[in-house]
Amino acid sequence: xxxxxxxxxxxxxxxxxxxxxxxxxxxxxxxxxxxxxxxxxxxxxxxxxxxxxxxxxxxxxxxxxxxxxxxxxxxxxxxxxxxxxxxxxxxxxxxxxxxxxxxxxxxxxxxxxxxxxxxxxxxxxxxxxxxxxxxxxxxxxxxxxxxxxxxxxxxxxxxxxxxxxxxxxxxxxxxxxxxxxxxxxxxxxxxxxxxxxxxxxxxxxxxxxxxxxxxxxxxxxxxxxxxxxxxxxxxxxxxxxxxxxxxxxxxxxxxxxxxxxxxxxxxxxxxxxxxxxxxxxxxxxxxxxxxxxxxxxxxxxxxxxxxxxxxxxxxxxxxxxxxxxxxxxxxxxxxxx
Amino acid sequence: xxxxxxxxxxxxxxxxxxxxxxxxxxxxxxxxxxxxxxxxxxxxxxxxxxxxxxxxxxxxxxxxxxxxxxxxxxxxxxxxxxxxxxxxxxxxxxxxxxxxxxxxxxxxxxxxxxxxxxxxxxxxxxxxxxxxxxxxxxxxxxxxxxxxxxxxxxxxxxxxxxxxxxxxxxxxxxxxxxxxxxxxxxxxxxxxxxxxxxxxxxxxxxxxxxxxxxxxxxxxxxxxxxxxxxxxxxxxxxxxxxxxxxxxxxxxxxxxxxxxxxxxxxxxxxxxxxxxxxxxxxxxxxxxxxxxxxxxxxxxxxxxxxxxxxxxxxxxxxxxxxxxxxxxxxxxxxxxx
Lengths: 337, 337
What we know:
alpha/beta, phosphoenolpyruvate--glycerone phosphotransferase (chains A, B), Hypothetical Protein Tm841, Chain: A,domain 3, Rossmann fold, DhaK_1 (chains A, B), homodimer, six-stranded mixed beta sheet, kinase (chains A, B), glycerone kinase activity (chains A, B)
């Protein structure tokens, strides 16, 4: 099939086979409900601990299933590629991780995800009396409304939020406090991304959009949704400015601020280029008088094999940095454990 | 430039700018000698500890610079993309990490790398009296001789070896023992890779080789060297057999064996596809009666943005598994620390 070179079998089986692969690769940490397409932390529910759930369309790996484990999520619901999971999955996960301390839903702002998580929360409350709070991430400064979203899209800050809020939940904090922290992280984070190439959804079999050999799309979403502008290819230095400037001026991040700086690959961009980009981003922040307290460079919230990157900044105080540094043990993010 | 969509500035600056990016992103763990293009563990040399050095052409990130840190390498020398570093770099690194306990060179079997590391060992011995031993990895079962190699190429087992031998060196074992262990790991490891697409070396500006829309290359090397055969695109299930069968039958791995199983991405293949591949590999091993003691799935020894994967097996006894599990703290591989 022209335009689709992938390591897959039947396109219809990609998500379930990848989940089988995760189950086979991480039996020490994860338990996978293949029927409902839910990845669980092996020891969930943890007595007294607030349950953390996220989920969304597949194709953004390691997000979210790869962020399940000690110090991060208790469960992740996988939809088809670029398609929201259904409320039944989310309800099953919600009930399964509730130890009685309640559950926080971490939802990227896409209309389908938001609606389905809301419905799942209502169903779980009605069915099992589970107390559910939600946080909706909407950190993408690129566009106000988008193909699948009213308001701003939820992107890179979701990774940082799942890590930081995961550490807080691990400490045994109560649900409202965990939800407040999640909101604080989202409120202090901003992102913007760009693409050099499209990706191809397996079931579609052809690229999501066309981009000429000499073009790039700036402000793109993680499903290939149109961004702010198409521009001629540019050096990494200019691309970094096109991403960092709108991010910095939006919150705004100011001289003297301390941030967690995250340069994310879209899936098809090699690490050597992400470090070239990080070098540019670090210089821009340095010139703006913004201190990098912690950094993350790699492919964490991806768009299948799309080439490109995004930049996320999170204004960080001592508490957020301490929670960032806390032990985490997931397939996608691991330290101190 | 047609055929080259990359997040870079001047192609001539890719390696030095990526090293600057690494230095900026990991100041807590790494010290980077930008002039000599050497990534050092921040606290090297460690008194009484054997120094571990590797290196090679750039473009395989996170290998090797991303494997420098506690429990793995003391230093890595970066060459230009797909080009061996020079003996002067290797000599400088060798002298710098020698605490008096000697230095082990971990060398992938490519003619330039082998020759230059040998020369560096002689220079360091003559200049500073440094005792150097070497291990050359040659785990690729695909072809006997190749474009840049006499004998088999060194590929995926190098990642596993750097981790395991790094743990042994961290325990304070003497040089000869560390070198013997390295040889044992290499002798018990086998790999084979494949590509769906070529990659483009920045300085060349065009794809290294041509591969039709309906073709794949099986047995390819990590620089795009020709493999065993070009075949029509096939499902993941068949690709897994084309890689696992020659690997298993070569050592051979036998019923009852225990292995560390490593499914590696070539750089441009998204994680969701690597898990689909791991699912197939795990089933093949299960059917052969081979037990997976530990697994690794992700992009660790890459070929720029090439799409494809490789499979590495390492026959593992209790000691190797214990050393694999030991704490490691590098940008590319981290747990327990």
